[in-house]
Model the fold of this input.
Amino acid sequence: QVQLVESGGGLVQFGGSLRLSCAATGSILVLDTMRWYRQAAGNQRDLVATITRGSDTNYADSVKGRFTISRDNAKNTVYLQMNSLKPEDTAVYYCKADQIQYYSGRSVTWTTNYWGQGTQVTVSS
Done:
């Protein structure tokens, strides 16, 4: 009934840029704090950036100054602008909602810790 749909991944050269999008679809009432994670092959999934509903942000040290997280609450969409990309940024990027409140039929319900399907980012050297 709700989905997080990521897009914008792809292959980019060292130093290039990509903009990821994560759109929440369905009868969304409230999209709470949103996060971007990434998981490189063989590694654990790591938190990259966080944005609250009020647009307070936080970043992993490895991406500070290069990545920018933002959101458009009217569109229920979160973005991750990635600049000065490095090969070590190569990973599958996932968005996650801490909580989504939405209509289910005539009821209001919510789901927590909801993940998107991921989008591959590959940075060539």
